[in-house]
Specification:
With 391 residues, the chain is an alpha+beta fold. The protein folds into 3 domains: 110 residues, Serine Threonine Protein Phosphatase 5, Tetratricopeptide repeat (Alpha Horseshoe); 97 residues, no CATH class; 124 residues, Jelly Rolls, CATH 2.60.120. Helices cover 47% and strands 18% of the residues. A hairpin with a 2-residue loop joins strand 2 and strand 3. Helix 1 runs antiparallel to helix 2, helix 4 runs antiparallel to helix 5 and helix 6 crosses helix 7. The chain starts with a helix and ends with a strand.
């Protein structure tokens, strides 16, 4: 009796070990896993799909995959890989209707099978059913987040299509769990087409889909970097209601967050320069003998003459060490300077004019620090600055 019990225990141990080994090989080597545990429906199904898709043109392999799939379903009617294998074979035979039924059944059993979801997406595209294709994308991205590496580039490329973009925006407006991550991906993807990106983000803005300020500003900068000045401004004006192209912006230095666009005030904080914007004041300090740009803002000013005016406090330096405003073309050619006076003079008010020529469509307005020999360097505040066209 003890010998019989020992044999049973040994047999159970053997099957336990082989089954554990089979499960360990299920993903990397499904055929070996099947040979180790041919009685398990899930492993039989994995072997079926592996066989059916090894060489889709080989009829004998497809037939073997079909047999394995049917065996797997006898062992486990819920073996989704087996159903998928049957669907793959049906499609290979040209029986799309049967494939559609099988994949639909597989999707009813689980929405976490990657092959099933990809087939559903491809089938919707084949039928030119944009709404269903996006619905299948949504299912895949909600149930299998790792599929974003495969599907995000597809959706980004699809967003360039005028016939698909409105439906994609509607999908995003429903706030799927992957929405913000996808929007950030498009804004930060170096392969994104700038014009298509602008079209998508303008559509999102019009549909009142929330977009993080970081992503918005990145879109503006990408468009400017690609030389799409008009597209950049059109989008910027949409996200900054009231912005006017013919003048500088944010005269009271309210700021645009930690990641401003190039159309916003961009303070410098490096190489001995420290600056900040808070409570309507731009505050700066510069180490001794250090010079450089303290603050900048890109412009798209039409040709003409402009007045630069504002107010300072705390500036007390010799004439040759005080900061100055400079307007320069994109090619670096300076169009004019307006030095900042000692804040004790004229109550800290400064004013001057600059002229933008015809062949200068994009400019940069810079506040520049001159090197100071003072032990404490230089510092000060600006609480108002405007660049406006003269009548």
């Amino acid at each position: 009796m003890r010998g019989v019990l020992a044999a049973i225990v040994a047999s159970i141990g053997y099957f336990g070990v082989t089954f554990a080994l089979a499960c360990a090989q299920a993903t990397s080597n499904p055929l070996l896993a099947y040979r180790l545990a041919p009685y398990d429906g899930r492993l039989s199904g994995r072997a079926a799909i592996a066989t059916a898709t090894t060489d889709i043109a080989d009829a004998s392999k497809r037939a073997r995959g079909e047999r394995l799939a049917r065996r797997a379903l006898l062992q486990d009617p819920m073996a989704v890989p087996a159903i998928t294998a049957l669907g793959v074979n049906a499609e290979a035979r040209g029986d799309i209707a049967a494939a559609r039924r099988l994949f639909h059944y597989a999707q009813l059993l689980t929405r976490r099978d990657q092959r099933t979801q990809l087939w559903a997406i491809e089938d919707a595209v084949r039928r030119d059913d944009v709404a269903d294709a996006l619905r299948q994308h949504d299912i895949a991205l909600r149930t299998m987040p790792k599929m974003k590496e495969l599907l995000y580039p597809v959706l980004r490329q699809a967003s360039a299509d005028d016939g698909i973009r409105p439906a994609l925006v509607q999908t995003l407006a429903k706030n799927p769990i992957w929405r913000d991550n996808f929007i950030d991906y498009v804004a930060g993807d170096k392969d994104s087409d700038p014009v298509a990106m602008a079209s998508l983000f303008m559509a999102l803005q019009r549909a009142r889909v929330p977009v993080a300020a970081t992503a918005q500003n990145r879109v503006v900068d990408v468009l400017l970097g690609a030389g799409k000045n008009d597209s950049a401004w059109n989008y910027y004006a949409l996200i900054r209601p009231g912005a006017v192209r013919e003048r500088s912006r944010d005269p009271r230095f309210s700021g645009a967050g930690e990641t401003p666009s190039q159309f916003d005030w961009v303070p410098s904080n490096d190489n001995g320069i420290a600056s900040s914007m808070s409570t309507g004041v731009f505050d700066f300090s510069v180490s001794p003998s250090i010079g450089g740009v303290l603050l900048r803002q890109d412009q798209l000013l039409p040709p003409g003459t402009y007045r630069l005016t504002g107010h300072t406090s705390g500036i007390d330096q010799p004439n040759d060490a005080r900061p100055y405003w400079s307007l320069a073309c994109q090619n670096g050619k300076e169009l004019g300077r307006v030095p900042l006076p000692d804040s004790a003079a004229d109550n800290g008010v400064f004013s001057g004019t600059v002229t933008v020529p015809l062949a200068c469509p994009r400019q940069t307005l810079n506040l520049v620090a001159r090197p100071s020999d003072s032990v404490g360097g230089s510092s000060g505040q600006i609480n108002r600055m405007e660049l406006i066209p003269l009548p």
